[in-house]
Design goal:
about 160 residues, alpha+beta, 6-stranded antiparallel sheet, 6 helices, 8 strands
Length: about 160
């Protein structure tokens, strides 16, 4: 499964073509013929992932006992709202203008790694979102060492 890391800002040409960061294309591994994007359910951004990730989501949905209305929402917004974008010979995709306009992306797009998925943002909106996220993380006293310590403590408790 791919791990998408870091952030990159790339220019979008007049046809909507943009180069997907090389490290993102590499992270796709054997699933590197293109990506899938859809409008984020929570942010003013586009969510992106591999086809394999959407297949995993589909399998996961089948194994859950979700209320029909939630199942319908996920199918409509994610699967129905997704578009598969193939790479051209130069590692570019063509982003539909309707998707760009919906989230306010103009001449540049920021690709943001989110472990198993990534997002595409207007760079200025991303800067504001990151500042808010850092402030909130600080206020909630979130740190990597605390996350690791918590998981370690849980593992030790299960083994005891």
């Amino acid at each position: 499964m791919p791990i998408f890391l870091s952030s990159f800002v790339n220019k979008i040409d007049k046809k909507g073509r943009v180069s997907v960061p090389a490290s993102f294309r590499t992270a796709l591994g054997s699933d590197n013929s293109g990506i899938v994007v859809f409008k984020s359910l929570q942010q003013d951004a586009l969510d992106g992932c591999s086809v394999a990730h959407l297949e995993l989501l589909s399998q996961s949905l089948e194994q859950q006992d979700l209320p029909p209305d939630i199942f319908e929402l996920i199918e409509t917004t994610i699967f129905g709202g997704s578009i598969q974008l193939p790479f051209d010979g130069e590692g570019r995709i063509t982003l539909p203008h309707g998707f760009l306009n919906a989230v306010g992306i103009g001449e540049e797009v920021a690709f943001v790694g989110r472990r198993k998925t990534f997002q595409l943002w207007d760079p200025k909106k991303l800067a504001a979102h990151e500042a808010d996220a850092r402030s909130l993380a600080k206020a909630k006293d979130i740190s990597l060492s605390k996350i690791i310590a918590s998981v370690t403590a849980q593992s030790l408790a299960k083994g005891a």
